[in-house]
Amino acid sequence: MNVAAAATVLVAGSANLDFVVRAAHVPAPGETVLGHGFNTFPGGKGANQAVACARAGGAATQMLLALGDDDFAKPIEASLRAAGVALSIVREPALPTGTAFICLADTAENAITVAPGANACLRAAHLPPLDGIGWLLLQLETPLDTVTAYARSARAAGLKVALNAAPAQVLPAALLELLDVLIVNEGELAVVAGNPPDLATGLARLAVPCVIVTLGARGCLARVEGQVVLQPAFRIAPLDTTAAGDTFCGALVAALAGGQSMAQALLAATAASALACTRLGAQSSIPTRAEVDALMSDPARVPGADAHAALAAWCAR
After folding, report:
1. What is d(CA 5, CA 53) in angstroms, rounded to the nearest whole number?
2. How far apart are CA 62 and CA 307, in angstroms?
3. pLDDT tens digits along 260-287
4. Strand order in the sheet with 135-138
5. Residue 3 — very low, low, confident or very high, per pLDDT cuts 50/70/90?
6. Model pTM?
7. What's the pLDDT tens digit per position in 5-63?
8. Which end of the chain is more exposed for a tag (fewer CB within 10 A), N or C?
9. How far is Cα 246 from Cα 119, in angstroms, rounded to an integer?
């Protein structure tokens, strides 16, 4: 595989139109809350990660996605193309384009409900030719059997396979053994690893060469072939955490596809995710590669030794 092919990422997954209401807080069950703002944004875990690969990571990026034949599909396509993502679209006239309904609290926390729509129709046969691709990035907003089939085809073709196990669900061993990189947050780690008592136990239970756990405002850690790599978070004033995790995933895989070390990739992904939290929306919040590079090159903002020590202590608790 040549260098250009190795650095090319195919994202196969979901695309949604996000309907976002801003409110003082996320409603409790049975509670009605008056909002103070409404917008629609292109979203969906797969599409967000594809935009992050291309825009924040600077990688040559392709995406396989399914859309309805409706007006909701138009802004999603436009956003992906504007980011430089080459599209392979499965058009499903019988189903609507996927949607997500998001309540965004003034604290930057959110609550999200997804209606998959056309995303649910992606099948193994839809995977495009893998010639010239180095990495496949997957999520779980499309059918699990389809995700497994894509991973199996990619592994057989010699690609590296990364999975963001979100939304959380129990994963079959047959899928885990096909992965090179597994990315989860703490809640997803609990589900995938069977409610471990601590992070170390959760990491040890997963037979994947590299497992990365994102820790929100604390940062992240990775277990890579038995070695632990820590990356504290950048300090920011969050406005909207929507797509922060997706931005992390896309920027990370782009960096790995570009030949960066895990430590370098974690730094770039953490910087991109931090910047995304300072802006509204999903794909609209994802920074450019130049912005990520500028943040990483600012010694006053890059987490130092004290931050690493604090994160190490917290992870070892």
Report:
1. 15
2. 36
3. 999 999 999 999 999 999 998 889 999 9
4. 86-92, 61-68, 9-12, 135-138, 160-164, 181-185, 210-214, 219-224, 227-232
5. low
6. 0.95
7. 668 999 999 999 999 999 999 999 999 999 998 999 999 999 999 999 999 999 999 99
8. C
9. 17
Tokens 């929100």 label which residue? 216
Residue with tokens 């034949």: 69
**Which DSSP string do the residues of the chain spell out, in sequence order?**
--HHHHT-EEEE---EEEEEEEESSPPPTT----EEEEEEEEE-HHHHHHHIIIIIS---EEEEEEEESSTTHHHHHHHHHHTT-EEEEEEETTSPPEEEEEEEETTS-EEEEEE-GGGGG--GGGPPP-TT--EEEE-SSS-HHHHHHHHHHHHHTT-EEEEE--S-----HHHHTT-SEEEEEHHHHHHHTTS-SSHHHHHHH---SEEEEE-GGGEEEEEETTEEEEEEPPP---S--TTHHHHHHHHHHHHHHTT--HHHHHHHHHHHHHHHTTSSSSGGGPPPHHHHHHHHT-TTTS--HHHHHHHHHHHT-
Q: Which amino acid is at 315?
A: C
Give the integer Cα–Cα distance in Å for 48 and 139: 11
Which tokens go with 170?
């129990």
Q: For 195, how many CA atoms within 13 A lie in the half-sphere containing its CB?
A: 0
What pLDDT score does 317 carry? 78
Cα angle 54, 56, 58 (rounded to 5 degrees) comes to 50
Establish whether 246 is a catalytic residue.
yes
Catalytic residue among 71, 246, 298, 306: 246
Provide the 10 A C-beta neighbour count for residue 9.
29
CA 93, 94, 100 angle in degrees (round to 5)? 90
Q: Hey, what domains does the chain have and what are their CATH numbers?
A: 3-25+39-315 (3.40.1190.20)
